[in-house]
Amino acid sequence: MILLIILAVLGLLILFSGLVTVNQGTIAVITIFGKYQRILTPGLNFKIPFIEQVHSRVSIQNRSVELEFQAVTQDQANVYFKAMLLYAVINQSEETIKNVAFKFVDYQNFMQALVRTIEGTIRSFVATKKQSEILALRSEIVEEVKGHLDDTLEEWGYHMIDIQLNDITFDDEIIKSMAKVVASNNLKAAAENEGQALLITKTKAAEAEGNAIKISAQAEKEASIQRGQGIALFRQEVASGMANAAKHFTENNLDSSYLLFTMWTEAIKHFAEHGKGNVIFLDGSPEGMEKTMKQLMAQMHKDQK
Q1: Residue 261: is its pLDDT beyond 80?
Q2: 34, 122, 141, 254: least buried by Cβ within 10 Å?
Q3: Contact status, residue 149 vs residue 168, Cβ threshold 8 Å
Q4: What is the pLDDT of residue 88?
Q5: Is the pLDDT of residue 305 over 60?
Q6: 235 near 249, Cβ under 8 Å?
Q7: How far is the first Cα of the chain from the last one, in angstroms, to the nearest whole number?
Q8: Residue 181 burial (10 A CB sphere; 0-12, 13-18, 19+)
Q9: By C-alpha distance, which of 274, 275, 293 is closest to 283?
Q10: DSSP label at 50?
Q11: pLDDT of 49 above 80
Q12: Edge-to-edge strands of the sheet including 35-40?
């Protein structure tokens, strides 16, 4: 009875030792005496106790690794890269899992080969470019890495999901010189913009001044025409009034010189009232008055003709 119990316990222990739990996102690789046998999918699985062994567990989840390395450009400038690589197992097929499990001795050797392959590809690409071109070639560098790495990773059972160049830097001397170049270019652009703005301002001011002169000249022209027309009308009315007054004087048998005398005195009165302090010199002698009368008479006869 005791022997049966012992045998039953041993049987249960052997049975339970054959149970294998595989976590989600993981594939277990089974070998028999070191030779590949099969794979175990996520969940509870059974293997032959003491015969089948779990060689390794392959994660089929996405993985990431950060890289830091240096490269030299064509013009001998040091460039420092910081990159992030995202990769994963291609699929869950048996052939792919075998490649992942047996291509390399361990995961550390795989990572060493992966990192060195990426570094070599980027260094070869950078060596053909100049320092001034590197910052503008970020996407080209990524495409170069993908083009060289995809086939290699596929042979190893992986594929590259993405690679990002997070930081590209240079030696301190180069960074300072680049900053000076950028600053000088900004100053040059600012000076050019300021010059253009000043040119536009002066051009607009000159155009405005020219337009103002044109408008003022046109207004002065029209004002002169109006003044001339007003003077002409005034003279015409004066001549007409003098002619009518002379006609009335003649009809009433009055001397027309009296009319001129009246106009002369009215003119003197107007000068006195509206002169505003100005000094007006008049010849008050009889000879001066006679001379003025003759001039007025001559002008009156001229207007009547």
Answers
A1: no
A2: 34
A3: no
A4: 92
A5: no
A6: no
A7: 172
A8: exposed
A9: 293
A10: T
A11: yes
A12: 35-40, 26-32, 52-59
- H-state helical runs in the chain: 2-17, 94-102, 107-126, 131-134, 138-156, 172-251, 257-274, 286-304
* CA separation for the pair 90, 97 (Å, rounded): 9
Q: What is the pTM of this model?
A: 0.54
Exposed, middle or buried, 178 (CB in 10 Å: 0-12/13-18/19+)? middle
Please state, in angstroms and rounded to a whole number, the distance separating the CA atoms of residues 103 and 91.
Answer: 16
Weakest-pLDDT range from 10-24, 52-66, 181-195, 225-239: 225-239
DSSP letters for 156-219: HTEEEEEEEEEEEEE-HHHHHHHHHHHHHHHHHHHHHHHHHHHHHHHHHHHHHHHHHHHHHHHH
If one compares 230 and 235, the residue with the highest pLDDT of the two is 230
The pLDDT value recorded for residue 303 is: 53
Angle 95-101-104 from CA coordinates, rounded to 5°:
120
Tokens coding 65: 């690794």
Tokens of 52: 């089948």
Sign of the four-CA dihedral 81, 83, 89, 90: negative
